[in-house]
Amino acid sequence: MIELDARLSELKALGLYRRTRRISGPQGSHVVVDGKPALLLCSNNYLGLADHPRVRGAAADAATRWGVGAGASRLVSGTMTIHRRLEERLAAFKGREAALLFGSGYLANTGVIAALARPGDVVFSDELNHASIVDGCRLSRAETFVYHHCDVEHLVWGIAQAERRGALIVTDSVFSMDGDIAPLEQLVELADRHRIRLMVDEAHGTGTLGPDGRGALAEAGLEDEVDVLMGTLGKALGSYGAFVACDERMARYLVNSARTFIFSTALPPPAVAGALAALELLEENPRRVRKLQTNADTLRAELEREGFDVRLSQTHILPLVVGDPALAVDVCERALAGGVFAQAIRPPTVPPRTSRLRLAVMASHRTVELRNAAHTLAQAARAAGFEPRQRPMVVADDEDFEDEPMEVVPQQAAPQVFDFEAPERIRRAA
Fold it and tell me: Which helix (H) or strand (E) holds 381?
């Protein structure tokens, strides 16, 4: 049994203890955080639609017309007109035959992966995939090969070791903590060559990249080349929930096999209607996507001028890696005192020695405030003892994977509280 007080004390000593922050008022580009006014620079409300009058109005109207809750799971009595309407619009937006709503991105990933992979199969997962993908691999009870981040050569080697047991390649399109993009074209080619299904999590790509905000796959011209595409309603679309887009046969299979779909209450009508209104706004005015990208370029340039290294980010997500978790918290608090809220991100969300401030740009930010924010962040870092031009020490692993054994999920392994607790470098999904 876990000794709760001892564990909490340990987390505090490690600089990994967490607490929630209180945001007063709606989610906009400016908020009040624990009583302090600040520029919000860590929200996933990328297009600024969470507080848009049409989105709020649609949610309020839906509550009046359909009620606050769906009352049951989708397979009982929870599928309402508004659910089907949004699924049809999302399928058309993503250029697929069908779409299926889930309660959250976490539920979508865990449910779909567990439905598509079983004991004896092998799932191939990028080492920096979101925790929901990691947990989906665990729940599937399949063997999991975790390939080096965006390293197609390592993935090719892993596929060869799997001896035709490969069931699924799964990757984020935009990696949520680093802002880089997966090698989608090469992954599509590999999946096709080896007859392995490919699932792409577009949580941070939907509404932010590609033509009309249709995502990183659409930007690469590959949106109809993957078996399952996951997207969320709670980021660029400003609401709550998630969806998968796929062909009709896959949708029918998931309705009958994805436990997180079968055994969860359907999304509340106000959240569905809000997402539908946000999608309409995006389709009517795709300039929001270009504004987001312009804002990201502005902040990136200003951060580089201050000495921060953000070259690896290709998107609206910009990590300021400082290394030490306590240092990341210190920089965060100093920035907040200066009027900028950029949350500190620490293990287990990121690997050890890579604690950071994760900056997330919004289309509703103004150019001048982004420039000022970069200066405030640099001042906060220096006051905390971190020089932006300094590179945090990260221990590299130079092992030659030619001689590595197949990395699998040991079914008998003791559970860990954190994914990155083990002393050795972890490249498997458990």
Answer: helix 367-383
